[in-house]
Amino acid sequence: MSTQDTQKLIETAKQMEARGQIEPALEAYKRAGAVEEAARLLLNTKREDEAGGLLLQSLRLLVVQGKVDQRAADALPPDGKRRLLKAAICFSRGKNTELAIDIMVLLGEVPRAVEFLTKMGDPVRAQQLQADFRKKGSGAQFAVLAAPVTASRALGVMNLDGAKRLEAEGKFQLAMEAYIQLRQLGSAARMARMLKQPEQAAKLFSDGAMPYESALCYLELGDTGKALDQFCRVPRDDARYREAAMQAIKMASGLNALDFVLENFLSSFVRQPPTSNREAEAFYELGRLYQRHDFVENARDAFGKLLEVAPNYKDARDRVEQIDRDARGSAMVYDKILREEQAFRSGESDVKRAGYFERNLPDLPELPGLPSLPATPSPMARPPANVAAVAAPALPPTGARAAEAGPTNDFPAVRQETPSSAAPITPPADWKGLVDGSMLGARYKLEKKLGEGGMASVFRAHDLELDERVAIKVFTQTVEDENMVARFKQELTLSRKLSHPNIIRLYDIGTFLGYRFISMELLEGNDLNHYMGKPMELRQGLNWMIQACRGLEAAHQRGVVHRDIKPHNIFVCNDGAIKVMDFGIAKRQESPGMTVGNMIAGTPDYMSPEQISGFSSVTHSTDVYALGITAYQMFTGKLPFEHPELLPLLMKHLNEQPTPPRTIVPALPENLEAVILKLIEKKAANRYQSCAEAAQAFDAVLKSLPR
Fold this sequence. Notes:
CATH topology of the domain at 527-704: Transferase(Phosphotransferase), domain 1
Number of strands: 15
Strand content: 5-15%
């Protein structure tokens, strides 16, 4: 990094610090090599020990048993020794006071060490050190005097046996400090409990990766919110996991809290029926909690598991029967849709069909205020034709022509091949399963598998009836699976509402041998994830983001929230057209919540804070956030929040500010950075209030680029 770039990065860090963006500023100072600025910022934010550690690390000095290596310190140049003294001052203001004294003495700053010991309330050691200083002279080398355990908190040379002796002697405060210094946090927490300090104990247990014990301390304090958080951190292989799950359900029920973290934590607990009366009550309370949040599939599963072992438990059976009655009502609506579509397909004229949709599904309104989209740059890389679900044989227009084309009335028709429930499902003699070359009914020949996920496989297929290539999405679990039926119905219903050049078009929906399938546009190109990994060319990336905004705005205008926007669900056609895909976990804003596969769904890397906290109540703003995460990744080559474990990753989305994109790619325009950061604001009210606004913002950046 050049001197000019370094100085620019430092200036950026100072600006972020002035705006209160502490973590991004700290990261920028570190990237610029401004160690002392970073230490100053840490010191100002009461992170004294971290500041001292950063300064020591920059000098490449090791601390062994609470002491700095004498020879390495002596070899430091004057500037290095000055920085080492700064580290000592930082430690003296934090908890690592013994290391501070050791460094002061090592550097010959004995008067400063004496003054510090006096302020600490350890006059005995201060007098001993001062007497030794006078006796040996100011140029002599000194060792830090070991303090009597009754007179000081000096534990710099303490080992585990010494800490245990302090505990055995009933000196719990000193023992706790010794255990903390030795990083024996569980033992330190025990001492805090002996000292009647449950809050300190809770924090120590948490820092020591003992969440169950930490949760009990928070319960003792009456802080059920923190107790719930800690119970949800208990590993599934812990012998107390099921006890923790019951406690978590009790806390969540009392708080009426249901979020992604709790749902993920309980997934193992609900996999098998209850084994005790207490577990039975937990299943019952969990079912009621799911019902209150409109997650009826999850509620039915919890009550069902309970009824397997306790058929007459309270009113669980009545609740299940009510859920089933409601579900049958939904099935009747679903069947009505199928019959109507089949009637249109078999006999109604085009005029009558158009009239029906005109009355029942009015055309999409023109999107207000969307800017004209410039033509795709001509030297665009055209990847090999990796075909994926999702663009018609005749691709829709792009650019300004796409906006002019407006919506169409080409709604998917349903091919009803579902056999009677009484009829056995018997495959043809030559049926080989869902493999390349097999027939799906009498109409579709599966030519090549294009992709496979946890719920469905996608094939390129030949539609023999219309003699054209399509994509077929086959749900790999059979019709009898209630969750697959729910997902299938979801895509069917939403496909009837959405028709836009930047949204995947669905053609035909039906079943064959118990498998649900959807035929859709066949797109040649790659999903957006194919292009991730390095910063994207600005004009191309902005072009794609504007189109994605258009597609999502059309969905939001119809009251549909996608809830799983990510690069994998945005497809880039070879001609530059963008298609938003996979509305399988989408939500109609006026409808109750729905889960898929008994899981509150979504992709954690792109999940908004409100989606983590309450999946059933999200609005279109959660798609705005996910689009912002996608844009951040497009233009920097990195995700703003990364962690190999789920819970810390979600906590980053909830609490941590992202590193500004220009810290990673200094060449990015400032106005583009501002757009991205506004898209991923923690509070929905601070983001763009629609994808139309976001499209206008991206277009303004595009127009500001030099020609």
